[in-house]
Amino acid sequence: MIAPGTMSELAFNKYKRCQWWFLVALSIGFLIIGQSAAVILGRFYYDQGGNSKWMATLVQTAAFPLLFIPLYTIPSPAETSTSVSSSIKVIVLIYFCLGVLIAADNMMYSTGLLYLSASTYSLICASQLAFNAVFSYFINAQKFTLLIINSTVVLTFSASLLAINEDSQEPSGLSQGKYLIGFLCTLGASAAYSLLLSLMQLTFEKVLKKETFSVVLEMQIYTSLVATGAAVIGLFASGEWRTMHGEMESFGKGQVAYVMTLVWTAIAWQVCSVGVVGLIFLVSSLYSNVISTVSLAVTPIAAVIVFHDKMNGVKIISMLLALWGFASYIYQNYLDDAKARRAQAHSQNDSAC
């Protein structure tokens, strides 16, 4: 049997070894590429004059209709007779609650970034791994090995080192009250994000109990629908929608660049989200968060290429630490995979006898 919480037994038993590793690798690529691109585009949006918190929140989920394309074009195997279907009302309620949590989480992140420097913001965001470790232990019965502990600690140090290296100071003229709001919002967003991942894993295992990858897309679509609706309501209720036209006209690179920045930011966040949910389904919520933290070290490489940022020794060390932590977790998955496959083979041989 697979160690509780180490790998998703539901997905592991469904796919062959090469298929499972391919989907894991694909999800990792989606998460890292999507998150890195979204962060770079988000920075570009603010650098060129964008300042809407609700618009920054909205674009994180607004591109969900694109997921209907793979949902209806990629064939999905028929459900097995052992699959258990939960009440539609229960599933709708879960999707609604998760969607509202996503919207609140996105808004807290946007508020935190508005009131804090990039260094302080990134340092606080690094705490999400610690939050996820706690939630995974109590909600998902995550089993911790020395390799997993090593990976979690090293990746947290990597992100913290990168954050401390930032030269930027707190925004000028910032009051103590706004700084406190930014700090609490970012800390709350880190905790909420970690809780969200654990709840998604619990939903896959205890409620949906489906064995097809399409369930990943369905969860992402319907929770994003709720989150987008909440963001739209917030955009109009706050009155920020009135400033959109002026913001577009004053955008540094022009109106077309403004629209394309928002469009591609939304697409990048959806690519990232599919990777996040896919890793929760295939492995665990903690693993998904580990890969999210790895992208904190990948993003500076993109920043060097796009914005010509300096690559100093601290950033290089941070990336090496991230690769070390990533390799530790991958090796733990390799050991779990080999052990589970041997147990599965022995079980089949005993049945044949």
From TrEMBL:
GO molecular function: purine nucleobase transmembrane transporter activity; purine nucleoside transmembrane transporter activity
InterPro entries (alphabetical): PUP_plant (IPR030182)
Membrane-traversing stretches: 20-42, 54-74, 86-104, 113-138, 144-165, 177-199, 219-237, 258-281, 287-307, 314-331
Pfam families: PUNUT
Keyword Lipoprotein: no
Main location: membrane
UniProtKB keywords: Membrane, Transmembrane, Transmembrane helix, Transport
Record has Transmembrane helix as a keyword: yes
Membrane disposition: Multi-pass membrane protein
GO cellular component, one term: membrane
Localization (cell): Membrane
Lineage top rank: taxon: Eukaryota
UniProt family annotation: Belongs to the purine permeases (TC 2.A.7.14) family.
Protein name per UniProt: Probable purine permease
Species this protein is from: Vigna radiata var. radiata
